[in-house]
Amino acid sequence: MGRPPAARRRRRLTVGGPGTDHPVMTMLEQAEAAERAMSEELDRTVVTSVIYTSGERDPRVPVTRPDNGKRVMMGADPRLPRMPDRPTLFDFFKYRFGPANHLMQSARLAMKHGVEEKVVLACLLHDIAIAGFIRGDHGYWAAQMLEPYVDEEVSWAIRYHQALRFYPDESVGYRYPELYKKLFGADYTPDPYIERDYRYARDHKWYMTARLICVNDLYAFDPTVQVELEEFTDVVGRHFKQPEEGLGWDASPSAHMWRTIICPTKYL
Ligand SMILES: [Fe+2]
Ligand SMILES: [Fe+2]
After folding, report:
1. Considering the chain, what is the average pLDDT of its residues?
2. pTM listed for this prediction
3. Separation of CA 141 and ligand 2 centre (Å)
4. Which residues lie closer than 8 Å to 83 by C-beta, 6 or more apart?
């Protein structure tokens, strides 16, 4: 997509710097510059990461950048809603995560059961990897994403809910989910690493925190019940360490994972 001639002419006037006639952009010029930047972004070649397409294509075949003379995507993908400059956890829910009804209903149920606030937070966040990142091993991914920002017990519980959900615990009324029989078949056996992690978690002091995620994990959630994110503003405010620079633009060990969610098609 080429730049419109008017915008191109205007650009010469607005480059600014010492000795230029128009060092400051007017509102109109700013709007045009933004539009131009957007059209240039739209015109970039998107090269997706191997993991997005692996299986649909053979990952051993190198991904080659089409030689079309265009620049590659190195920032915000214009096909996606723009994130605020300093995104909060809720901004990820609003702009990058799929329907979060399951998470919010689970957190509401946990609240109704009168559990500690950090367990409510754990329920609200337990499946964020499914909602917006990587589905396989979602408990491990979510825990890693969240570790720098939540109490250790919260991320621990999220990591291990992944394994515990395959194993019943009658003492709290948790049965093997009927849905799993449908999804995986009645004869499904979890992988050995899931079995190992289940056994480890079962003897851990935070076992019940992870188990409470499973107990409040609604498998057949009611699509007619609407829960608003704002219901959890106070819990998140008290228990999630929102970085000032914005989630993803901070220097935590998992900030890059949040950045990847912001800009999932960045070339490098
Ligand atoms: Fe889960
Ligand atoms: Fe869940």
Report:
1. 89
2. 0.85
3. 14
4. 76, 91, 95, 96, 262
